[in-house]
TrEMBL record:
Keywords: ATP-binding, Nucleotide-binding, Transport. PANTHER family: ABC TRANSPORTER ATP-BINDING PROTEIN, CONSERVED COMPONENT OF ABC TRANSPORTER FOR NATURAL AMINO ACIDS-RELATED. Residues 8-257 form the ABC transporter domain. SMART domains: AAA (SM00382). It holds the Pfam family BCA_ABC_TP_C. It comes from the Bacteria. It comes from Falsiroseomonas frigidaquae. The keyword Nucleotide-binding applies. InterPro entries: AAA+_ATPase, ABC_AA/LPS_Transport, ABC_transporter-like_ATP-bd, BCA_ABC_TP_C, P-loop_NTPase. GO terms for molecular function: ATP binding. This is ABC transporter ATP-binding protein.
C-alpha cells in the first residue's frame, strides 16, 4: 500500500435502527500514520461510526475498505485479525484477571500454536511462542509505564490506570489502525496529559495510525493531524484542526446559531 493510499476508506456509510438514522451518507479516509479525530456534540453518531468500522455494527448502506480490502461484511474478529484494534468508551477489561493477563488477551489473534502444539506444550512449541508474546507484552507495559501494577487485578486499579491498561490491550494486537473511543473520558488533567503523550508516541515512534473520538477539544487540537465533525449523523466538516474549528457549521453545532451571529465583526 502506497503512502497516498488510505489505510481506511469509508464510502457513503449510513446506519439506521428502525426509523432512526444514526449515520447518513458519511464518507472519509484515514491516511497511514496520521491521528484522525472524529468530534461532534453528544448523539452525533461518533461511536456508531467506530462500531461500523470495528464490525460491531453493519452499515445499512455504504462500504468500508481497510488496507485496500472491502471489510463491510466481515465480523469483529476477522477485522481484528486484519489489524484493527480498539478501546471502548466504557471499560471492557476483565476485572478478575491481572493486568498482564488482560494485555495477553489482546494477542490471541496473533497466536499460531494450534491444538496439537498446545497438547505438546512441554516439547517447547507453544511454550516458545508464548514466551515471545510475553516479551512483546512486557515492552508495551514498559512503554505505557504500568510496570508497578502489572500483577495487580485490573478491577482494583484506579480509573485512569484501567484506561491505560485497556489501551495496552488494544496495542498488544499490533494493529495497523487503532480506534480510540473517548480515551480521556473521566480523567483528571494529569491523566489526560499522560494519555495524550502515549497516543502521540504510539503514532510517532511505533508508526500506529490512530482514529480517535474525543470530547476534550484542547487534546483534539493539540495532537490531531486532521479532524472530521459529525452532527446528527451527518458530516459537516473535515480538515486540519484550525480550519475545522473555524468552520461556521462547526461553530454553530458547538456554540449555537445565536452565539455565532452575536460575535462582533472586525472592522
Amino acid at each position: 500500500m502506497g503512502e497516498d493510499t488510505p489505510v481506511l476508506a469509508v464510502d457513503g456509510v449510513s446506519l439506521r435502527f428502525g426509523g432512526v438514522r444514526a449515520l447518513t451518507d458519511v464518507s472519509f479516509a484515514v491516511r497511514p500514520g496520521e491521528i484522525f479525530s472524529i468530534i461532534g456534540p453528544n448523539g452525533a453518531g461518533k461511536t456508531s461510526m467506530v462500531n461500523c468500522i470495528s464490525g460491531r455494527y453493519r452499515p445499512t448502506e455504504g462500504r468500508i475498505h481497510f488496507d485496500g480490502q472491502n471489510i463491510t461484511r466481515l465480523g469483529p474478529n476477522r477485522r481484528a485479525g486484519l489489524g484493527i484494534g480498539r478501546t471502548f468508551q466504557n471499560l471492557a477489561l476483565f476485572g478478575h484477571m491481572s493486568v498482564l493477563d488482560n494485555i495477553m488477551v489482546g494477542r490471541h489473534h496473533l497466536l499460531k500454536a494450534g491444538f496439537l502444539r498446545g497438547m505438546l506444550y512441554w516439547l517447547g512449541g507453544a511454550q516458545t511462542e508464548e514466551l515471545a508474546h510475553r516479551r512483546e507484552v512486557e515492552e508495551i507495559i514498559d512503554f505505557l509505564e504500568i510496570q508497578p501494577v502489572r500483577k495487580a487485578m485490573a478491577g482494583t486499579l484506579p480509573y485512569g490506570l484501567r484506561k491505560r491498561v485497556e489501551l495496552a490491550r488494544a496495542v498488544a494486537l499490533k494493529p495497523k489502525l487503532i480506534l480510540l473511543d473517548e480515551p480521556m473520558a473521566g480523567m483528571n488533567l494529569e491523566e489526560k496529559e499522560d494519555m495524550a503523550r502515549f497516543i502521540t508516541d504510539l503514532n510517532a515512534e511505533w508508526g500506529m495510525t490512530v482514529l480517535m473520538i474525543e470530547h476534550d477539544m484542547g487534546v483534539v487540537m493539540d495532537i490531531s493531524h486532521r479532524v472530521m465533525v459529525l452532527d446528527f449523523g451527518r458530516k459537516i466538516a473535515e480538515g486540519e484542526p484550525e480550519e475545522v474549528m473555524a468552520h461556521p457549521e462547526v461553530r454553530r453545532a458547538y456554540l449555537g446559531e445565536d452565539a455565532v451571529q452575536a460575535e462582533p465583526v472586525e472592522a
